[in-house]
Recover the amino acids of this structure.
């Protein structure tokens, strides 16, 4: 039962999940305002586009090195440093009107986001046993989706009642609150004691160990799955609002309601789906099921049969999102040793961000130019179904890999990396 299982989670999981939700609210309250704010300052379309892309650039270049750093200095201090950086850069937006500095701040925000996410994912997998990892990631996913819903509403209210810079100050304040919360959590010891900053310098054995931890069958397989999923998510976020506005004549309010219903479904379902993935043999099945739910959402938007059915697609797709992410992040914990967990999480995250960039900035515009407005969503449906099939195909090979290659490592580390894979 979930209530009894919730009592088994370490209290730091709840503190960090709250921080995740608060920081997401702080981030999301600024995102809808950035284009308008930039337009007020006289920025052209290229600069506005760079303000959006800079965040993802920061995430791409930093996730892997920050993951490696967390394996050496500890997850807690990477998260604390990332939250401090987020707080400073967010306040910086309220203090500058220069495009170059704003783009630089957005890059640093991406770095801060990457550090907190990578540190948190590894911390949860370090702190939580295999049979509770899905539930722990589900609690965090609920908090994040709550922040996604609340953030834009707060941003709109604050900017209308006060000044357009007020949400940036509010976001910085929320970042500071998260920083204080992160200082309360106990660190999780890692197998590699930190031997000073010189110990991070690349060496022969160290480089071979690092490369072998990320360039192996499980890490590369899950990287490909996550790359495709993040591409599909970028297509959804880029194309869905325009398709519903143009082809269903939805107003901004109706689009916001659809997004709210999707986020609400994720908030409610996430702990239950996370717990479901903790059942032996359920990780890949729940993950593939979540991808199929998101494919149904894409199909409803592609056919846009009317408001009610399209809303239903958003709700089902919203529930599919945590089904995928909870299972996926738990799988990373199942398949890695503690001392390499940050590096693997960072490598997979950095690789997948390229899917987001390609999906939103390349695939969608090219398809719109050469086909029709709703075609990207049809392609998205095929990508999601193909990714679900790939996840199921990888189920047996991954299970066989762990059984034949990792039994000794599992016994040494105390991590059960095979328990929920099949």
């Amino acid at each position: 039962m979930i209530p009894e299982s919730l009592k088994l989670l370490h209290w730091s999981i709840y503190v960090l999940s709250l921080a995740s939700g608060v920081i997401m609210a702080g981030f999301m309250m600024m995102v809808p305002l950035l284009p308008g704010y930039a337009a007020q300052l006289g920025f052209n379309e290229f600069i506005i586009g760079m303000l959006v892309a800079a965040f993802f650039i920061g995430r791409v270049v930093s996730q892997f090195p920050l993951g490696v750093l967390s394996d050496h200095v500890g997850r807690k201090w990477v998260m604390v440093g990332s939250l401090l950086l987020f707080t400073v850069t967010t306040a910086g937006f309220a203090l500058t009107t220069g495009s170059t500095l704003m783009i630089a701040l957005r890059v640093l925000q991406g770095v801060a986001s990457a550090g907190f996410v990578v540190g948190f994912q590894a911390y949860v997998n370090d702190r939580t046993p295999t049979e509770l990892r899905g539930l722990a990631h589900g609690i965090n996913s609920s908090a994040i989706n709550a922040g996604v819903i609340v953030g834009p509403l707060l941003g709109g209210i604050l900017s209308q009642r006060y000044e357009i810079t007020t949400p940036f100050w509010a976001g910085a304040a929320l970042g500071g609150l998260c920083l204080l919360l992160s200082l309360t959590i106990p660190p999780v010891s890692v197998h590699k004691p930190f031997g000073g900053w010189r110990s991070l310098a690349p060496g022969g054995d160290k480089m071979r160990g690092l490369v072998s931890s990320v360039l192996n069958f499980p890490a590369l397989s899950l990287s490909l799955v996550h790359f495709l999923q993040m591409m599909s998510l970028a297509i959804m976020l880029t194309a869905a609002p325009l398709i519903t506005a143009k082809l269903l004549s939805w107003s901004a309010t109706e689009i916001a309601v659809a997004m709210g219903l999707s986020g609400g479904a994720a908030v409610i379902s996430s702990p239950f789906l996370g717990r479901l993935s903790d059942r032996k043999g359920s990780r890949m099945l729940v993950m593939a099921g979540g991808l199929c739910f998101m494919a149904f959402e894409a199909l409803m938007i592609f056919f846009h049969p009317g408001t009610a059915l399209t809303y239903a697609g958003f709700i089902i797709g919203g529930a599919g999102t945590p089904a995928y992410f909870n299972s996926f992040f738990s799988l990373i914990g199942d398949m890695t040793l503690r001392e390499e967990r940050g590096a693997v999480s960072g490598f997979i995250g950095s690789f997948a961000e390229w899917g987001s960039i390609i999906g939103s900035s390349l695939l969608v515009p090219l398809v719109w130019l050469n086909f029709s407005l709703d075609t990207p969503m049809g392609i998205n449906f095929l990508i999601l179904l193909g990714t679900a099939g790939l996840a199921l195909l990888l189920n047996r090979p991954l299970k066989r890999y762990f059984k034949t290659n990792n039994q000794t490592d599992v016994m040494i580390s105390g991590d059960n990396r095979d328990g929920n894979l099949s």
